[in-house]
Amino acid sequence: MLKRIRNFIVICLIACITLASLNVFTPTLWAGERGNHGLSPNIKPAIPLEEQPFYEELQKRHARWSDNPIGEVVGNTPQDTLLNFYSAMAIVGTEVDRISQSAVLTNGLRWDSTTQHEIKELEHLFEVAVKALDSSGFPESVRHHFTNESAIEIKHLLDYIFTHTEEPLGLINTNKEANRNLKSLDKSYVWRLPGSPISLSNKLDGPESGFGYYFTTDTVKNAATIYEEISGRLKHMEKTKYLTPTFYNDFIHTPGNLVPPKWYAGMPRWAHTFLEREILGKETVFQTSFGLIAIIIYTLIAISVYRHIKKVLSRAGSIPGQCANQIKTHVSILTALTPFILLTKLTEGFVDGFLNLTGLPLVITTFVFEILYFTTLCAVAFFALEATGRLTQDYLFRKKLSTTTQTISRRRQAGAIMPICRTASTAIAILLLYRLLILLGLSTEAVLALSAVPGLAIGLGASKLLGNLFAGFSIQIDQHLRIGEFCQVGNTTGFVKKIGLRSIQLQTLDSTVTIPNASADESVIVNYNSLVNEEEGQGLSLNIPIKQPFTAWQTSKLIDMTKDHINSLSKFKQSTVSIDQKNGEMHLLVYCLMTIQKLDTWDEYLLERENLLIKINKLITQLRHSQRTIRVAFNTSHQKLLEVPSLVRDVVTRDAHLTFEKCEFLAISEFSYDFKLNFMGDHQHLSDFFKSIDAMNQRLVHTLNTNDIEIPYPTTRWINTFDG
User: Fold this and answer.
1) Residue 35 lies inside a defined structural domain of this protein
2) Domain coverage including residue 591
């Protein structure tokens, strides 16, 4: 099992590195070409930031954010969002630089309480500003880090644009324009900063929803690419309360979040120069060395955990079949894996949060740690549920019971525990896998598309195994087979010894037979045992087709009379009678339990079944002939029509074996008045019942003739029409 887990992890790591190498999240270049991006070379002298038309408004917003860092950057117009974002980021950049430079002026290795409070306010303001970015284009596992980077990069782009434009930038909205933008929020609208690749939209691309304007996904993803093209020019810009040319480099090259730890910020200049030297792309000496140390320590601990688990499993293999030892093995593995989960998250947080890795190294390390984390979670869930199931089974088996009935019931409960636990662990593993794929950057649609891969695997060879598993779940849920019962599965008869996820074991007279669950589920299963009030019983079921359609009265009578008959029999209990419709044909369904002392012979069972079947068929035949239509001619007077029901009642009740139900004026047909007659008979034999009907019909004809009530016959009238 360890080899399979190890191979799975290796495959996942290779896939992770491949995805990262392919740069699945790499932004597409704006305008389709590298080297342009709308930042045209200077032709006329650039307008300074202080001379831009929006500078006065920018000062107001800067003062507002300085006095009150609590607010909302996202505005009702794209210009509002842009100016709010720029002024807030300007405060963050200048204050971060000021606090970092102050480290050499104070003693100690930690920031004082006042500085820590300032840092928390800056971090809060930075988070507020970052909310103005639509970050749905980044994988969820690295979204936070790359979004923070993009926010600083967009700030630098605005620094460059605001100081290198030849034309004034109109970023001040009138009330009329603001109201127009508010009304347009229900429509998709994209606004682009003139002469730049920066755009804002009122519609988010991700699943989130928001009210206002946000930097678009393309702007956020392209920020890194465009920043690389202007980063050399930013070095020549002077720091002001708005311009922060070193903000991005300080952010990614120093440890910590916004502000580096005081012990690092207070180091001599030569130490910063050495530690912040780039050796692997954007990664510095400090990031690379400490990252390697963290990964080496993590690897050593992982190897020790792996060896411990391997040792535990090798010991467990020498003592099979002992529930206590299996529980000890599972608990020992859990003890080793649970701290490993915390270690994985701590190492990932250290590499990502403290070292501030970026680009491809960040993606690779994050993906690797996420895969290891979720793989470990799956293993923990599996062993935890296995240990829980074994403990529960051990408790149920050790508890002594007084009766055989309780013992069989307890065996049924114990047999269903492990399949339930393993089903739960499988479901948890699937959910964790889907969550991992989403964290690695796959969309929900892509994850659902990948769900077709298991279907392909099933079609290529795993269909039998999964078929047995699903059939095992069905057997456990339906419980038409339970441990300890005497059953026949197909052509094999014996006592159910075990019900597993893959197969069933039957103990026959001479051997133990293993039957795959899929075969058992498709076979005819006969259960000879059932426990009702600690009495042995045999289930009986009948499915009797009713060839001709029955009326509602006939159907109701059939159900009631069948129930009354079964309840009158002493050997039948728990009867259930219902009607079913299949393929346009009505069926009478009868389910009951017949109490039998012994199952040595089939004679008693077959005899009772035969008698019940004959009786029900008699009832069906009787009911089919116990409803008829009586028709009288149209020339019958109204007074005589009123007398028809009473005359019919007298005719029926003259026979002591017939019971009058009702006679009512049902309809006016094409050639007669129609009366519906319902009656019942209590004859022992059908021949006597039909004799009574014959006599009743004779009396009915005589009575109608005596009372001058004509029985009509249908006639046909031909009317020929001729032209002219």
Assistant:
1) no
2) 531-624
Tell me the three state secondary structure of residue 168.
Answer: coil
- Does 221 lie in the same domain as 208? yes
Low-confidence ranges of the chain (pLDDT < 50): 17, 19-42, 174, 317-322, 531-535, 598-601, 716-719, 721-722, 724
User: What is the Cα–Cα distance from 98 to 92, expressed in whole angstroms?
Assistant: 10
Q: Residue 477 in 3-state DSSP?
A: helix
Q: Which residue has the tokens 């040319």?
A: 245
498 dihedral zone (left: phi>0; alpha: psi -120 to 50; beta): beta
Residues 351 and 491 in one domain: no
How far apart are the C-alpha atoms of 345 and 369, rounded to whole Å? 8
Task: Report pTM.
Answer: 0.56
Residue type, 364: I
Let me know whether 682 and 557 are in one domain: no
Do 426 and 546 fall within a single domain?
Answer: no
On whether the CB atoms of residues 332 and 367 are closer than 8 A, the answer is no
For the beta carbon of residue 177, count every other beta carbon within 10 angstroms.
Answer: 12
- Residue with structure tokens 């200048």? 94
Q: What is the DSSP-derived secondary structure letter of residue 184?
A: G
Which stretches within 193-253 are classed as H helix? Answer: 217-234, 247-253
First to last CA, the chain: 99
Interaxial angle between packed helices 638-653 and 686-706, expressed in degrees from 0 to 180 and rounded to the nearest 10: 150
CA quadruple 41, 81, 97, 110: dihedral positive or negative?
A: negative
Q: Which long-range contacts (CB under 8 A, 24 or more apart) does 709-716 make?
A: 709/632, 709/633, 709/636, 709/640, 709/644, 709/647, 710/632, 710/633, 710/635, 710/636, 711/631, 711/632, 711/633, 712/631, 712/632, 712/633, 712/634, 712/671, 712/672, 713/671, 714/670, 714/671, 715/671
* 81, two tokens: 């969002």
- Into how many domains does the chain fold? 5
Phi-psi region of 548 (alpha: psi -120 to 50; beta: other; left: phi over 0): beta
Spatial contact of 96 and 258, defined as CB atoms under 8 Å apart:
yes
Tokens matching residue 652: 């029926």
| C-alpha–C-alpha distance, residues 65 and 90, integer Å | 10
**Distance separating alpha carbons of residues 157 and 154, to the nearest angstrom:** 5
Q: Are 667 and 644 in contact (CB under 8 A)?
A: no
DSSP type of residue 320: T
User: For the purposes of burial, counting CB atoms within 10 Å of the CB of 43, is it exposed (0-12), middle (13-18) or buried (19 or more)?
Assistant: exposed
Of residues 502, 548, 493, the one with CA closest to residue 525: 493
Q: What pLDDT is recorded for position 31?
A: 36
What are the tens digits of pLDDT across the range 223-236? 988 888 888 888 88
